[in-house]
């Protein structure tokens, strides 16, 4: 079973959920960054609150409700108080992303 949330990185025309989206929860229909240039992504999770910043500009501020109802077709998606995994995924062959300077810290 998949758990957790997905922050979208997407530069393809055909997918409506663009870079910075909290997939199927808070979807952005236009990317706030130029994906042909390096850009910074900062994801912060504190308790039930998730914020996403792209190049230091906040694009998502979401707090998971007490009785959160996962998006259709995504059962089990939600925050786990025991923690979880972090994954980098490329599911769209027309989107190309490179990663550098990845840092994870407990807050």
**Globular, elongated, flat, extended or rod-shaped: what is the shape?**
globular
Radius of gyration: 14 Å
Q: Which parts are unreliable, with pLDDT below 50 for 5 consecutive residues or more? A: none
User: H/E series, N to C?
Assistant: EEE
Q: What's the mean pLDDT score?
A: 85
Largest sheet: 3 strands, antiparallel
**What is the helical fraction, as a range of percent?**
under 10%
User: Would you report the number of β strands?
Assistant: 3
Count of runs of 4 or more consecutive helical residues: 0
- Tell me the β content: 15-25%
For the largest sheet, list the strands in their spatial order: 1-2-3
Structural class of the secondary structure composition? mainly beta
Task: Give an overview of the whole structure.
It is a single chain. This protein has 107 residues and is an all-beta fold. Helix content is 0%, strand content 18%. Strands 1-2-3 form a three-stranded antiparallel sheet, with no helix packed on it. Strand 1 (41-46) and strand 2 form a beta hairpin.
Structure summarized in a few sentences:
With about 110 residues, the chain is mainly beta. The chain is built from no helices and 3 strands.
Please describe the topology of this protein:
Blueprint: E1 41-46, E2 49-54, E3 57-63
Antiparallel strand pairs: 1-2, 2-3
